Amino acid sequence: MSLVGKKAPSFNSPAVINGEEIVENFSLEQYIGKKDVVLFFYPKDFTFVCPTEIHAFQEKLAEFEKRDVAVVGCSCDTEETHLAWLNVAKDKGGIAGVTYPLIADSSKTIAKNFGVLAGDWAYNENDELVFQGNPVSYRGTYLIDKNGVVRQETVNDLPLGRNIDETLRLVDALHHVEKFGEVCPANWSEGKDAMQATREGVASYLASH
What we know:
Glutaredoxin, 2 domains, alpha+beta, seven-stranded mixed β-sheet, two-stranded antiparallel sheet
């Protein structure tokens, strides 16, 4: 079920911040009223597609920050595993140099509550609790506004890396809507015309394009 238009699920969980410090009770509540948040889930530390995405977010971090957007990553690994990976050089497959928070969801409850856990628990024929599927998160991305409401979400299957520039475009679209009260048509990007959400506004936009 989509979370768009709903409050993002709350949590308190360990995380690594600034690439080096473990905190025990990280929460998105710290951003309420202050910043929008891009929360992204990735499957697993010490893998292959994941570091390309993690570094890509880091490379665009200044662009997010100048828009008052916090970037936060999350996987079902432990905080110790996050920290270990952060201490491996980029050219060795690590994520050294990443400074935004990485949440440790070792209980898998955050991924479950956001709807991106790639499996679930069930009882087998012997009435034993087992996990069916993959005990990692899909590549979910959530744009959460300053009120803690999810305004956009996308979920990719495990082998499909996401486009960070598209996430930035969606941030720009959200900010344009909030600032001008206009809606953003297909393929809109910053600097292009938006349109009024009326029949006349749509007709005018289509006639000029």
